Amino acid sequence: MFNKVLIIGCGLIGSSILRAIISKKLSKKIFISEKSKSNISKIKKIKSNYTFIKNINSEISDCDLVIICTPMNQYKNIIQKLNQRLKKGSLITDVSSTKQNVIKLKNKILNKKLIWISSHPIAGSEVSGPEYGDKNLFLNKWSVIIREKKQNSKKINLLKKFWKKIGSKVILMDSVNHDKIFSITSHLPHLIAYNLIKTAQDSQKIQKKNLIKYSAGGLRDFSRIAASNEIMWRDIFFNNDNIIKAINLFNKNLNSFKKLIQNKNNKKLLLRLSNSKKVRKQILQLKQDIAKPDFGR
Amino acid sequence: MFNKVLIIGCGLIGSSILRAIISKKLSKKIFISEKSKSNISKIKKIKSNYTFIKNINSEISDCDLVIICTPMNQYKNIIQKLNQRLKKGSLITDVSSTKQNVIKLKNKILNKKLIWISSHPIAGSEVSGPEYGDKNLFLNKWSVIIREKKQNSKKINLLKKFWKKIGSKVILMDSVNHDKIFSITSHLPHLIAYNLIKTAQDSQKIQKKNLIKYSAGGLRDFSRIAASNEIMWRDIFFNNDNIIKAINLFNKNLNSFKKLIQNKNNKKLLLRLSNSKKVRKQILQLKQDIAKPDFGR
Q1: Which residue has the higher pLDDT, B293 or A124?
Q2: Which of A184, A190, A222 to mutate to test the interface with B (most CBs of B within 10 A)?
Q3: Confidence of residue B24 (pLDDT cuts 50, 70, 90)
Q4: What are the backbone angles phi and psi of residue B220, rounded to the nearest 5°?
Q5: For the residues A131-157, what does the mean pLDDT come to?
Q6: Is the ipTM beyond the 0.85 threshold?
Q7: Contact B273, A126 (CB under 8 A)
Q8: Which of A217, A242, B148, B189 shows the greatest Cβ crowding within 10 Å of its Cβ?
Q9: Domains and CATH numbers, chain A
Q10: What is the rounded distance in angstroms from the CA atom of residue A26 to the CA atom of residue A265?
């Protein structure tokens, strides 16, 4: 499929892409740019041919695909280097979780000779680092490709083909819709999980009791989500403006929930609780989760 | 261990207790009181000797242990029947998730000849009904026994022994502490999950988009928790007064979280996000969950 691919940033997502490319034999040569020495030694356990590079040099100026998998706050520096080194018409993508900010940045500083089509594979975990990477991480998961005006349709198709080859279902949407949708399905749930764990920590101090000991009752699942990478999630919360709207809507619902309890409004409370089952049903129908009940792992 | 045990209400928890008693041969005779015809036909698939009863009659007036596993709003009726039929000194327990209300009710209306020691096995799932029951549901899970003044220590020991025999770790605490602790570790997380799903449903209407389709990004796990039994959770929210305090603390934290985002307070936000990992670490150390990462089931 490709002659040369460059992966910049090789943590959980980058190394999963690396493993998938190796497994599917999608590129003759693979280059990896990774700053962390500890990550490099972990990646080296993956047996295959790939080359670590310190700088983007002439050898890789003609890359078919550059995939940026670093935290978003490194994008600016990376773009400046790519501007200098990459050949005209080179295809760049990234895997960030918020898109309006990325599109804005690249429109501002990316050299017009280069083609950046942004991606967001909806895959991840509470763990980070290349040791947890998995060639099947993207299998049957959505990969969003960000649609913009006047895009190179040949390159869009190439990128689509790439994500499909490594197992994803592909959907195109614009960055505004992307950020709206994922503010609700991903960003708000993570923020709420972080906030719940903070509340449990505070309660532990107030009650002077080891609450965590009894976490089997529900806290457990939230603690997993709230153990996700803090750099990644800081970047997401700072870069998706929709999160404030999402918090406000959540807050409004929480206050009305509280009132239903205080007023012992039996009928409305039951309705609210049973309505949630519809969402679960949809999620199971869409095969986003399996129906097997969870009794605590 | 027992000659006669009576299980009143045989859904997920009741039928799990039934299966455990059968499996461990803890009682010569087992009686089941269950109103739902559909549940009865599901229970009948469990091959063993047990007897369905319609009314508490003379045959079971000398039960060694009565275990109430119905929704809490049926307790009053049940107590009135037990008052009439059970012999002096009979031991009753229940498995409800809130305790101050149960203790108050039984202190008010239970005949003084009967001994009620309340229990709360910390086990369950998003599914309900006897078809999901499991003899190992209580294995390595906490069972709380509610301590009160002037309790029959012989009966406490018998109840302790019972929960241990079916696999639980047992802890004694008073009802006030019980309700405080579980308002945070169990009741608030469920309320928050219900509220998050409601917020996603509202957003779906506002955005006129099928958000649920992309739920793999985090909503999925909350949807499972929010699919729990609405009758049980209505009763819990109505009966644990601590839930309002818990909501208020959560709300306070959510507002400060929002401010950190709005003010782009990098340092404090990173601290807050990374602090959650401590709770996860504790939970794994306590073996409340396994360390195996979750990449979506």
Answers
A1: A124
A2: A184
A3: very high
A4: -45, -50
A5: 95
A6: yes
A7: no
A8: B189
A9: 2-173 (3.40.50.720), 177-285 (1.10.3660.10)
A10: 59
